[in-house]
Amino acid sequence: MQPIKVAIIGMGPRGLTVLERMLEHARTLAAGTRLQIEIFDSRPLGEGAHDSRQPDHLLINTVSSQVTMFAPSSLAGAEQDLSLVQWARREGYRRVGALYCRTSAEVGEPITDADHLPRSLLGEYLAWFYQHLARQLPSNIALMPRPHKVIDLIPKGESYDVVLENGDVHPVDYAVIATGHGNRQPTAQDLELSAFTEQQAANNRLLSYFPSPYPAQGLDRISSLATVAIQGFGLTAHDVISALTLGRGGRYIEHEGRLKYLASGEEPRLLLFSRNCLPFAARGINQKGLTGKHTGQFFTPAAMLARRERVLASTGSAQLDFRHDVLPLIIKEMAYAYRIAATAQPVAADGFEPSAEELVAINGILWPLDGQAFASQEDFGRFFESLVRDDLAHALKGNIGSPVKAATDVLRDTREALRVAVEYSGLSPASHQYFVEHFNAITNRVSFGPPRQRNFEYLALREAGLIDIAGGPGAQLLMDHDRAQFRIDTYYPEHIEQRYADVVVVARLDTYSPLSDAAALTKNLLARGLIQPYRNGGYHPGGIDIDADLHPLNLFGKPEKRLWAIGYPVEGLHFYTHALPRPGIASRQTQDAQRCVLGLWESIAERQGLAHLASANDDCNRSANVLSGGRP
Q1: ω into residue 328 within 30 of 0, thus cis?
Q2: What is the DSSP annotation of 250-318?
Q3: Would residue 42 count as lying in a domain?
Q4: Which of 33, 325, 494, 540 has the fewest CB atoms nearer than 10 Å to its CB?
């Protein structure tokens, strides 16, 4: 029997999990079934975006003990169920100053469960996990790596031709799209700002525009004489700051109980700005253990389902209004966690209602600019720094000890309730837009921020005079042709504050949309009608449209039954697909991969059943023909 060929397009964390689920369910394949898994990725297998060769100063924002690729009680983990930190220790990694190195037990310090490890180390772990899976797969599942980028997928009857950038074509029976994060096509602003740098190059040799900071090594060409404006305050912005400070030979030391930055002299001057110009909150010290989390009392999946039933009965539509049906329960849950931490006592859920003071506290966490007015950039700068310092004080109290961090952890710990509310067009289109473009940004800012050390580093850089806030709320990026520089304008009641920069770095990850993604594969899939943008009414939050079994919906709204999509390409209809699994918890990543694999197994069984039936019919026809003497 010829092997059935299955393409996995992208072998980063999502592709790995698909492969892991294949191992988990391999024993349920029909006897005699052989699979050839064609793996398409031009990057080292397993690593995905987590390049093991990237600089070590770029950190993951999750503590090392809460990252794993092993599903609970899995076959893959039967012998070596290692989380990231356990693997790093086994491999001999230790912390030596600010670096993590393979070294002897006498050098440096052991890695702790609370360390934020380099992303390069995560890349090594993911590559190890791929090899770990490859060694355990049974003999009827063969891996065929193809180290090239896929540019097209062409339907050929009951199969596909996978077209590679080098011109090779590989026929497959099934395909899984697990391509991860993409890069946008240049926007009108990208083109305008890039053209400005080219036109003004003779007037300012320092001028440059980076629509993306990755790979971070590309930032090395920025001159130390330049002033660099970083657009964004999140995790990507901290990567840029790190690349232009630690990556330039600077270092931090403890001095009189504070962090102090020792400059190398190669650092450019840094300016930060964004739409709201608000700092991302630091992660609180984890006091909940490896798998502990806040147990929802009000904002739960069951509560969202019940609310949907009531809305359907009263309006005839099952779509919720986020601000009316969902947000009040989120705020109530946050206030409940806030009170437990503030009183250090159990709080009965029955009859609980937030106090006026608790509501003020929660509103202050979510909307710190409400009721604020600033006379000048200096005035706003003082407000910004007070937010950073106050937040760090709460972070050091921990996610149980600090009422603020206990409340913001609710946004992480009740994520499944949010999925029930949001996914598969669960919100009205206008409400969905508010959630994606406003509230989700708030959630990322207050609950999914950088390691604490990054915000301490920001304060040290500010004290060293290397970084400043370039704008306030509503800051605008402009081009100053007279000065041959970029300009950041912020409007205050009596005047406009202006800051100038030679370089602009856009420090944010692109939302994946088939309408704007730059990858040739996306463009061709869209042109062939194999995928369509997901739309909730007239709103497109991003991602491709899929059915409940993760099959992309084609141009005619029909599922492509031999094709699956998982992870970031479906972020839009799904929510928060990019979180890596945590030890001991059945992750969404694993659940989605299992849905793909079980669907694949079912299709293979159906295909083999039809083939068996066709073979049996042929045998019957041949027998009948013989009995009739060969006459029709």
Answers
A1: no
A2: -EEEEETTEEEEE--S-PPEEEEE-SS--PPPPPPP--STTT--PPPSSS-HHHHHHHHHHHHHHHS--
A3: yes
A4: 494
Integer CA distances (angstroms), 620 to 308, 316, 456, 613, 617, in order: 55, 55, 78, 10, 5
The span from the CA of 426 to the CA of 321, in Å, is 9
- Determine the pLDDT at residue 412: 92
Contact between 281 and 368 (Cβ < 8 Å): no
Helix (H, G, I), strand (E, B) or coil at 76: coil
462 and 327 share a domain? Answer: no
pLDDT 10s digits, 491-523:
999 899 999 999 999 999 888 999 999 999 999
Range of 325's domain?
A: 301-447
**382 in the same domain as 523:** no
Q: How many helices (H) and strands (E) does the chain have?
A: 17, 20
Same domain, 315 and 389: yes
Residue 350, classed as helix, strand or coil, is coil
468 pLDDT exceeds 70? yes
Q: Are 487 and 156 in contact (CB under 8 A)?
A: no
Asked if 41 and 144 sit in the same domain, the reply is yes
**Same-domain pairing of 46 and 65:** yes
Contact by Cβ (8 Å): 427, 320? yes
Asked if residue 460 is part of any domain, the answer here is: yes
CA–CA separation, 567 and 587 (whole Å): 12
| Domain assignment present for 310 | yes
Q: Is the pTM of this model over 0.90?
A: yes
What confidence score (pLDDT) does residue 610 get?
Answer: 64
Is 264 exposed, middle or buried, given 0-12, 13-18 or 19+ CB atoms closer than 10 A? Answer: middle
Residue 627 belongs to some domain of the structure: no
Domain tally, the chain: 3
Residues 491 and 600 in one domain: no
